[in-house]
């Protein structure tokens, strides 16, 4: 039924809806009984329906705890024909496979798969779905997957890629010229937090005790030497050994307290280095800088983007969509007859037809004749 309908040109979504309306169970003895598009796609692509088997689709990891992982080329796979009785003819199955490839090519042309700096980095702040790339009339957009399925379940609409690129350029300018004090203060706070945390760790407490014991031994040895209770050679030899032990203990303590070992501080320094090496401002979007600075873009709503930097710091930028005339909706200025600027004042709408002007002229003429 599923194979025949798909070959007849019916979409997987429509097949899913028909099965659910007919109350055909998805699987028996299972909590989920509703069909999904993913289930339809799995059946259409599963070689077991034609009596064949692809072995080692998944594999177990080498480390504990052992988890099953999807084989994406890490392990060799084996395709074996006629391992069991087929329930779908091979000609039908291969015809479905060809049709799926054809539809995928129509839906996602080659430029759809062009590399993009935003791929797997744009997240919906309303439903937590990932945004996906879409193209329409030569323009590239990013849209929420959940919104595409059901607009009522997620209000975030699609965003032109150029809008996100421009938002990043504005964010970069702010970080370049005003970000250094923020990151410097952040590093200082991280150092204080780490230092206070490590001061009470068992390793640091143990080192402090050893350092205190050695300092007591040095003090006692010095008092003996001053009282003439130890000869100079013995004093020098013992004092050198204690000084070397003290130096090593202090180095170990400094290593534990050093913020360089903190991953968050390292990422913050990497951000500062990338900003320092970058230009004063961006004439156009720089994918390399974006990848070095930004971890995720969260679309909070249709008016605001939230950029999560590599060190976890989040900064917001307004979404400035452009009109057809190339001007931003957030800053449309119109000049009146006196040359003054008025923000966001709508332009007067022209009459739809010339008959409006004709009727207006006739009315004026009748009034003058009266």
Q: Your description of this structure?
A:
With 370 residues, the chain is an alpha+beta fold. Helices cover 47% and strands 15% of the residues. The protein has helices spanning 2-7, 12-21, 37-45, 90-107, 145-149, 161-199, 202-226, 232-257, 263-277, 287-293, 355-369, and strands spanning 53-55, 58-60, 68-70, 78-80, 122-124, 131-136, 139-144, 159-160, 294-301, 304-309, 314-318, 333-335, 341-343. The protein has a 4-stranded mixed β-sheet. Strand 6 (131-136) and strand 7 (139-144) form a beta hairpin. Helix 6 crosses helix 9 (263-277) and helix 7 packs antiparallel against helix 8 (232-257).
Main sheet makeup: 4 strands, mixed
Q: What overall form do the CA principal axes indicate?
A: elongated
SS strand fraction:
5-15%
Unreliably modeled segments: 108-113, 324-359
Mean pLDDT: 78
Number of helices, where a helix is a run of at least 4 consecutive DSSP H or I residues = 11
The total strand number stands at 13
Query: What is the C-alpha radius of gyration, as a whole number of Å?
Result: 35 Å
Binned, the helix content reads 40-55%
Chart the SSEs and their pairings.
Blueprint: H1 2-7, H2 12-21, H3 37-45, E1 53-55, E2 58-60, E3 68-70, E4 78-80, H4 90-107, E5 122-124, E6 131-136, E7 139-144, H5 145-149, E8 159-160, H6 161-199, H7 202-226, H8 232-257, H9 263-277, H10 287-293, E9 294-301, E10 304-309, E11 314-318, E12 333-335, E13 341-343, H11 355-369
Parallel strand pairs: 5-9
Antiparallel strand pairs: 1-4, 2-3, 6-7, 7-8, 9-10, 10-11, 12-13
């Amino acid at each position: 039924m599923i194979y025949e309908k798909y070959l007849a040109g019916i979409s997987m979504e429509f097949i899913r809806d028909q099965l659910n309306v007919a109350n055909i169970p998805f699987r028996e003895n299972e909590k989920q009984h509703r069909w999904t598009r993913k289930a339809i796609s799995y059946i259409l692509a599963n070689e077991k329906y034609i009596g064949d088997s692809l072995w080692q689709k998944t594999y177990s990891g080498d480390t504990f705890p052992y988890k099953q992982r999807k084989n994406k080329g890490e392990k060799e796979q084996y395709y074996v024909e006629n391992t069991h009785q087929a329930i779908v003819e091979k000609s039908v199955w291969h015809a479905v496979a060809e049709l799926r490839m054809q539809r995928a090519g129509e839906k996602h042309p080659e430029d759809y798969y062009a590399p993009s700096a935003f791929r797997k980095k744009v997240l919906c702040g309303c439903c937590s779905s990932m945004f996906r790339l879409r193209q329409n009339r030569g323009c590239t957009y990013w849209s929420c997957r959940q919104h595409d399925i059901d607009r009522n379940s997620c209000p975030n609409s699609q965003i032109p890629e150029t809008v996100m690129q421009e938002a990043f350029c504005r964010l970069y300018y702010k970080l370049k010229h005003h970000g250094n004090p923020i990151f410097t203060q952040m590093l200082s706070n991280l150092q204080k937090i780490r230092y206070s945390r490590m001061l009470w760790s068992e390793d640091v407490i143990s080192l402090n005790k050893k350092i205190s014991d050695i300092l007591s031994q040095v003090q006692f040895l010095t008092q003996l030497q001053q009282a003439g209770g130890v000869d100079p050679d013995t004093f020098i030899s013992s004092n050198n050994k204690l000084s070397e032990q003290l130096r090593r203990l202090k180095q170990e303590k400094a290593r534990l307290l050093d913020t360089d070992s903190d991953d968050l501080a390292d990422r913050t320094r990497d951000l500062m280095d990338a900003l320092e090496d970058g230009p004063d401002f961006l004439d156009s979007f720089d994918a390399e800088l974006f990848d070095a600075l930004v971890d995720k873009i969260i679309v909070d709503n249709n008016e605001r983007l939230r950029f999560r930097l590599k060190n976890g710091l989040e900064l917001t930028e307004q979404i400035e969509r452009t009109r057809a005339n190339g001007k931003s909706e957030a800053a449309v200025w119109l000049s009146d007859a006196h040359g003054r600027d008025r923000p966001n004042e709508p332009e007067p709408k022209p009459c739809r037809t010339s008959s409006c002007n004709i009727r207006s002229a006739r009315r004026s003429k009748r009034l003058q004749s009266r």
